Automatic annotation (TrEMBL):
PROSITE patterns: ABC_TRANSPORTER_1 (PS00211), ABC_TRANSPORTER_2 (PS50893), MOP (PS51866). This is ATP-binding cassette domain-containing protein. PANTHER family: ABC TRANSPORTER I FAMILY MEMBER 10. It comes from Thalassotalea litorea. Residues 342-407 form the Mop domain. Residues 1-233 form the ABC transporter domain.
Amino acid sequence: MTVLNLGVRCQRRSFALNIDQQFDLTGIHGIFGHSGSGKSTLLRCISGLEKSGTGQIIWQNRTLLSTADKCFVAPEKRHIAHVFQRSCLFPHLTVQENLDFAIKRRVTNNIPIDEIIELTGLQPLLASKVTLLSGGEQQKVALARAILFEPELLLLDEPLSALDRQNKRQLLALIKRAHMHYKIPMLYVTHSIDELQQIATHMSVMENGQIKLTGAIHNVIHQLNNSAMIEQQTSLSLTIAPQEAKAGGLTPLLFHNTVADSVEQGNVITKDNVTVKDNVTVKDNVIGKDSVLDIDKGGEQDVNTKLYMLTSNIGEYALQHQALRCFIMASDISLCTQEPSNSSIVNQLRGNIIAIDINEHQALVTVSVNGHPFYASISAFSVNTLDLAIGQIVFIQFKASAIQTLLK
Ligand SMILES: Nc1ncnc2c1ncn2[C@@H]1O[C@H](COP(=O)(O)OP(=O)(O)OP(=O)(O)O)[C@@H](O)[C@H]1O
């Protein structure tokens, strides 16, 4: 496991960073939080740019900071690269000279320079002064420079926030590729849950200088569904079904079922504190808020459930890797108490209601399918009309177009 151990404090007038956390950086780890929650300060402590940080930082058994032992490894000796929201390139140098700066300082020579230049599409710009490039192009140079440095750890601080959608997609794919091909551990700070949903394997949520939530990506996103920090959604990993014919513009996909484990670890689904269907109580407008029920046994399905997605919504990158990170907005999922027939809606799954959260006139219904939670946002009126209750078997429905991904 690739591990970053933090016990860090940083005190400012009206803000205190207070982090005690072990980060698993085997995959990309995302840091999400509102403005001012301390995300950048945390990264600056890790890279050593923040000199007022105290405590302990241990990266892969190497101590970078230990206030007790009066140890502070200078930023240039940490071999950590830091990419910011606005690229900090050398303005008087060309693209090539900016890249050379990193190439001369790298310790190993494992990452092919030509490959990164090709992946970023920087070849035609190599002789240009960086000040003449667009914001997106400058960010590509910053990212290429950071990767070519071959850092032991890459810190990304909102690297895509100034870019348009197309540039975002391109650089997200590049970051993902850099992580998969060159195994660079990455901490990725952003306000955008969409970006993390596409590339992070784990994420932490920061609030007031502290980590409030941490865990596997789908699990944390699902836990945020009731927090008003994100748009309510189902987050899932799917594989493009091998040897399945694409038909009529649709591509069949299969479930990964990794989420079920992490959900149970995260105690979203508990087997204690069970609420029985006929005994549901309504308190503070919430039905069974603390009592979610895992009674999947009655509704078990084949783990490799097939779903259909619009082929035009799947990009080259996903097709090559056969794997897809997807999300379905809760407003795009509807519920039926009987098996639908003769419907134009191609995705229909049978599951159990495990939670119903009512907020004024709107309800978020959580349905467990093979232990994987799906979230449907429906009216409180429909909850009453259909007489929905925890433990009930229902069918969820969503169109092929409702399965979305960003990495096209
Ligand atoms: N140099 C500084 N001196 C004093 N206070 C600072 C300094 N830099 C940041 N702060 C304060 O520290 C707090 C955390 O800032 P930080 O930039 O880490 O938050 P953030 O989560 O990265 O925000 P954003 O998403 O807007 O970049 C904020 O209240 C900010 O005003």
